[in-house]
Amino acid sequence: MAAEFALIDQYFTRPTPSAVLGPGDDCALLQPSPGKQLAVTTDMLVAGTHFLPDTDPKNLGWKALAVNLSDLAAMGATPRWVTLAGALPAADEAWIGQFTAGFFACADEYGVDVVGGDTTRGPLNICVTALGEIEPGQALRRDGAKAGDQIWVSGRPGLASLGLAQLQGKIQLPEPWPRLCIGALEKPRPRVALGQALVGIASAAIDVSDGLLADLGHIAERSGCAAAVKLVQLPHLPKGESYDADLRRMALECQLAGGDDYELCFTAPGPQSQAISRIAADLELPLWCIGEMTAGPSGEVTVFDPDGKAVEFEHKGFDHFG
């Protein structure tokens, strides 16, 4: 069994050309690009809370970084550097090798350097801090939405939550759902290019990590307005031969409150709809207008059926302490 620093040298240390000083000292030294502001985010993934303990370690490595890059994407920032800290129950080199392979694959795809971190023994827990850059005054924030702005979402929220239900044996998804949903859960795609393209177009943005209704509610609360979501405008989820009423209801609940999607939910004035359609075409990414911001009570999110009647949902998203 390798000692701690030998494990770090073998599995976690790589060249960091974008850093003044990378791993190996007490601190990394970083030099932001001239005139840029830093965007900084930290996310923690805990076994049994954020992922199943038997999750493929390569997929977990990818996801541990991807969920942080998703936060940078929601701000329109360009990812630059990350640090990785983890508690491991044992120095399982096979597991560590697969985890770091997934982590560095994500880092390579999105052009970030891993500049430091920490390891310790304990219950499996992964904590990543990601740093990105943005032009001053250009960051997408949660507090810029106004009544009348359209509400948009990328991709197909709900797939990840359905994938978790499949893995937990709560449902049996018909084809082609299992591959699509479990893939969305275990290997999310942070919408970095979308966030960058929305700078100057979107009025507010957030990544969908806790559930579409809950995260849209954060935009509404910070912006001092309400939100109206129309069921008929929600993204279409794939349908199989066994697409019955129960599965349709579960799919809708996952879509609105499931979380773990890491899609972007954003608002924009109506005149920007053509620009948003061009972005969708350029990125080959579906973008859906699902409603509009209103002048109602701050933070209130209401879902309307095709007849214009409000529909109540018991759960609106994930809450660690709820």
Explain how this protein is built.
- With 322 residues, the protein is α+β, with helices and mostly antiparallel strands.
- It has helices at 4-12, 57-74, 93-110, 159-167, 177-186, 192-198, 212-223, 245-257, 273-283; strands at residues 37-46, 78-88, 113-121, 125-134, 150-154, 204-208, 226-230, 263-268, 287-294, 301-304, 310-311.
- The chain has nine helices and eleven strands.
- The chain is globular, with a radius of gyration of 20 Å.
Structural class: alpha+beta
The share of residues in extended strands comes to 15-25%
Backbone shape:
globular
Question: Strand tally, please?
Answer: 11
Q: Low-confidence stretches at least 5 residues in length (pLDDT < 50)?
A: 318-322
**Overall average residue pLDDT:** 90
Number of helices: 9
Strand order of the largest sheet: 6-8-5-9-7-10-11
Major beta-sheet overview: 7 strands, mixed
- Give the topology string: H per helix, E per strand: HEHEHEEEHHHEHEHEHEEE
Radius of gyration: 20 Å
Helix content, binned percent: 25-40%
Amino- and carboxy-terminal Cα gap: 41 Å
